[in-house]
UniProtKB/TrEMBL annotation:
Keyword annotations: Signal, Transport
Any one Gene Ontology BP term: late endosome to vacuole transport
Signal peptide: 1-19
Residue ranges, compositional bias (Acidic residues): 256-265
Protein name: Chorein N-terminal domain-containing protein
Region (Disordered): 246-267
Family: Belongs to the VPS13 family.
Domain Chorein N-terminal: 13-295
Listed transmembrane segments: none
Superkingdom of the source species: Eukaryota
Coiled-coil segments: none
InterPro entries, per database record: VPS13, VPS13_N
Length: 296
């Protein structure tokens, strides 16, 4: 892709971009290049690149070579209804192709990755190379037996009280440390515990616990803001009282009924009373939002 700067104005910048022979291919019967030297390897790959004057007919394209021009407008002053970038692309052709062999290879690749991920958890139990099932059948039979038993034991352990207790403790500790760390008041021990928990827990557990901590973090921040506003209001009232004492204010009451606008805000206790009245639970709502469908 080549880009030229065309016009520079006070409020926008015009650019002209040219795209030449962008393509995606999947060759199902290509020879392996692993035994080639780095120079031959590079030459083979460069020879497979299509050009406007020379299209490679041997490649089996998923996306046929695309050439075209694009006009890009970069707005220096953007926001609201004005975008930062405006793009107008003109292509000669957009052609997508997927034949039967490419589809089969794609499904096979996904299946191989799935098999690799399933075997990865038992790799530590597998007999070391160069042992094979043919040369050491007894060891591989024990390996298969142990893999099945470990899977059953792990499955049973996840339904034990010890596992429930451990997950409960990890959840409580992670939520507490995460909230304190987000508020900037975490101690060194809490930061270290949070680091160890993030190494121990799975990605799904971390995302789930953070979704549960979000509502608690929101309440903590609201409480901190409310306390800061209360202290500020108290300081203002004390200052007004001193100024009226020394300045000889008449102490006329507020007959207009205008109260401090901060007093009209809903406190945390009032919010909880409202939630109890409408039978609403923020934690349960967070749990419901965090539940994912099974991957399978």
């Amino acid at each position: 892709m080549r880009i030229w700067f065309v016009i520079t104005a006070n409020f926008f910048l015009l650019q002209l971009a040219t795209l030449e022979s962008l393509s995606v291919y999947w060759n199902t019967d290509t020879p392996l290049l692993a035994d080639h030297s780095p120079e031959d390897f590079s030459k083979e790959f460069y020879a497979m690149i299509s050009k406007p004057d020379k299209e490679q007919t041997d490649n089996r394209y998923l996306l046929k070579p695309v050439s075209g021009t694009g006009k890009v407008i970069v707005n220096k002053q953007y926001g609201g209804s004005t975008p930062k970038f405006g793009v107008n692309m003109l292509f000669e052709e957009l052609g997508f192709i997927l034949d039967e062999e490419q589809y089969q290879d794609a499904i096979l690749t996904v299946e191989l990755f799935h098999t690799y991920l399933k075997r990865q958890q038992y790799r530590a139990l597998r007999p070391a190379l160069p042992k094979t099932p043919k040369t050491h059948p007894r060891e591989f039979f024990k390996f298969a037996q142990r893999a099945v038993l470990d899977h059953i034991h792990e499955k049973n352990y996840k339904w034990s009280w010890d596992h429930f207790r451990t997950r409960r403790d990890d959840r409580k500790q992670y939520i507490s440390c995460h909230v304190d760390n987000a508020l900037g008041r975490a101690t060194a021990s809490q930061k270290e515990a949070l680091k160890k928990l993030e190494q121990k827990l799975s990605f799904e557990d971390i995302r789930f616990y953070r979704s549960m901590a979000k509502s608690k973090l929101k309440r903590e921040r609201a409480s901190i803001n409310q306390q800061a506003k209360s202290q500020e209001t108290t300081a203002k009232k004390a200052g007004n009282w001193l100024s009226s004492w020394w300045g000889g204010s008449s102490g006329k009451p507020n007959i207009d009924g205008d109260e401090d606008p901060e007093a009209a805000e809903v406190t945390e206790q009032q919010r909880q009373e409202l939630f109890e009245a409408i039978d609403w639970n923020e934690d349960k709502a967070a749990l419901a939002m965090a539940v994912d469908m099974p991957k399978d």
